[in-house]
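Re: folding output
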Amino acid sequence: MATAATAVEREADRLTELDSAIGDADHGSNLLRGFTAVRAALEEHPPAAPGAVLQLAGRTLISTVGGASGPLYGTLLRRTGKELGEDAEVSDEELRKALYAGVGAVAQLGGAAPGDKTMLDALVPGVAGLSTSYRAAGEAAENGARATVPLRARKGRASYLGERSVGHQDPGATSAALLLGALADTAERGDATDTAAAGDGAR
């Protein structure tokens, strides 16, 4: 979550620029406010389990982010966290299954599907990529976000524009790709730390 917050902070202006073309020009500022609050909440009351971390983050986003982004991202994180339960450690496969459940909850809440030019266009291929690796997931999500450019929006604020939504990258898909990219970055740092620790033990 801290890595995601840093990514949102870095890309907030870009997200707002994308949203200015087909939305309300507030996606970046909304997510920046939300993830700043998430970082603060986790620092003040750090949960002991991954599932609890995601549930707290989800609740915080719902309470601080306006528009559709708060409920959608909040639902993603809360449902994923609920699926993980109270275990102190979770496997890669458990996280993948939990994220599938979270993405399904987002689809149900928003009534959208891949191809509708929404965050699902990054989330669905991104989570599918987890079966290969975390980096594959991040790259698939990024590719999914880029693939929204030629699509006509069928859900959300951008759908009101009709054909005028074509030719613009969806801001929600872009921010979803940021989150999966943050997950990949965090996983790779963890792998590097584990490898270094194993090497220290061997010596």
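--- second protein (sequence, then structure) ---
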Amino acid sequence: MTSLRHNGSVELTENPRDHYLDAARACILDVGWRRTTLTEVARRAGVSRMTIYRTWGDMQHLLGDLMTREWAGVVAATVAHESTDDPVRERLIGDLVATVRNLRDNELFGRILELDPELLLPYLLDRRGRSQDAILGLVQAQVAAGQADGSIRAGNPVVIARGLLLAAQGFVLSSSTMLGDGVDRHDLDAELATLMTRSLLP
């Protein structure tokens, strides 16, 4: 993000919302969600408090936009270098396992789990978030493509995609509870790939 500071203000040459979200991300990494305020986000962004309030009415809406941007960025970076020569099933499974690994290693995700895990509960118990819906759309399209080329079993691609995402979420959120006794994260990632492969085989 390119910016120019002048007399305490910030002149943005790119999308200012991204600059504000960068400031919010830095706050959460430093002090956690509960201690982050819109006032502090404004201070770090170098803009007035009202500028932030006009963009987001409260921290919950800001968090929703931040998480959507963050998780979408993880997914985009994960699939950016995929080989289009791989069969659809193998490509889908590779993308899902890599996304699980990259989300688990994401510093913002880790900080939220460490300090404010309750922030994720609504997206696990009550409703899907925008990033979950976006991922589901991508997975559903790949499932349908795999069914078309015969590499993925028949069935409702919506249901299959949702089952895959539910499995992946468990490996993102709970893998640390299953480590030890000779089992590491690499073993669990390999097991997830096996589970998905056997689930999708025709």
